[in-house]
Amino acid sequence: MRKDQNLGEYLRSQGVSRRGFLKFCSATASLMALPPSAVAQVAEALAAARRPSVIWLSFQECTGCTESLTRSHSPTVESLIFDAISLDYHHTLQAAAGHGAEAAREAAQEENKGEYILVVDGSIPVDNPAYSTIAGISNLDMLKDSAKDCFAIVSVGTCAAFGGLPGAAPNPTGAVAVSDIITDKPIINVSGCPPIPVVITGVLAHFLTFGTIPELDALGRPTAFFGQNIHDRCYRRPFYERGEFAETFDDEGARKGWCLYKLGCKGPITYNACATVKWNQGMGFPIQAGHGCIACSEPRFWDKGGFYDALSTGDWGTREALLGAAGAGAALGVASAIRARSRKKKAMAEEEA
After folding, report:
1. Which pLDDT belongs to residue 260?
2. Which residues of the chain have pLDDT under 50?
3. pLDDT for 64-74, tens place per residue?
């Protein structure tokens, strides 16, 4: 793509039809929680946009975030990479290696000063930077070098956003989040272990459409995807309201799809789009598969108590909030029992009559 060529011109030169382009725009608008009426605005903005350079750095991580991205379905990662952005550096997806790979990163930074998007997955060791290096360059030095001329940073995954598993106690490498090191650039945290694939592409699509960072919550996460907790949107919420809880993973309640709160589900304190956007092309999410939420998109989720302990027995937030959640569940259970006894008494009275 030429420097003076906008995205619309580039797509036409690649044989992309207007129908295909509008389909991509519709998916993009949906990802950003925009109404159908906004599709035309999205199309106009994308057509006029420059195809931005994206540099993706992977540090202390498991490659799960990249694996998640490659399974995005709306828009597909192929359309995002080849049509909408210029992915100029990514260890896993690029063909170049060694000196050629590092030369590509340096060239992209130089040619797109102040305009490229820096994506980071994985935490950064600071106790001894030599714990993790790429081409002889420590993660800490590479991050600082790549961040100095970027437009904004997207911290993909809980490791980059909050330290994640490498930063869990006892944290032998002194792993920290991107925001603990870089303080003079806009940072968007797309947390999750791994993040939902369409959330990753949705954030990049927002850049393409508006040229700005999306609205963020107190933890730097885009509110379009992290604005509500999983519990409030969970299809098992009615069972919670009725006080119907699975006590074990193989009891009758579990088989009936009752609430998993007592089995350690952290949905009430976890903010993410799992219950609405879902995984595997929108087919399901962990709670739907019978496993409670482990709060993987929240800070320090590895260090806050057992995944199978109910919220009120762990270190998952303020004491008042946890007692409120536990109390609500207990109160609902009592109310359910009272209603059940009332129905039984009424039935017995009708039989006697």
Report:
1. 97
2. 81, 318-341
3. 888 887 776 65
pLDDT score, position 146: 97
**Amino acid present at 182:** I
Q: Find, among 69, 71, 73, 75, the residue nearest to 26 by Cα.
A: 75
Determine the 3-state secondary structure of 10 from DSSP.
helix
How distant, in Å, are the alpha carbons of 31, 51, 138, 254 from that of 132?
Answer: 35, 32, 6, 43
Q: How far is CA 224 from CA 31, 52, 265, in A?
A: 8, 22, 23
What is the reported pLDDT for 353? 56
189's enclosing H/E stretch is strand 187-190
Residues 6+ apart with CB under 8 A from 201: 31, 69, 72, 74, 75, 77, 80
Sketch out the chain's domains with CATH numbers. 51-224 (3.40.50.700), 230-342 (4.10.480.10)
Going by C-alpha positions, the residue among 153, 176, 161, 190 that lies closest to residue 69 is 190
The alpha-helical segments, DSSP class H, found in the chain are: 7-13, 18-31, 39-48, 64-69, 77-79, 98-111, 139-147, 158-162, 197-210, 223-226, 230-233, 237-241, 252-255, 319-352
Q: Give me the pLDDT at residue 335, please.
A: 44
Phi-psi region of 317 (alpha: psi -120 to 50; beta: other; left: phi over 0): left
The structure's pTM equals: 0.81
Other Cβ atoms within 10 Å of 165 Cβ, number: 18
Strand partners, 117: 54, 152
d(CA 188, CA 145): 19
Amino acid at 243: G
Q: How many degrees, rounded to 5, is the angle at CA 166 between CA 163 and CA 171?
A: 95
SS3 per residue for 144-157: HHHHCCCCEEEEEC
User: Distance of CA 42 to CAs 24, 50, 78, 172, 217, Å?
Assistant: 10, 14, 19, 46, 23
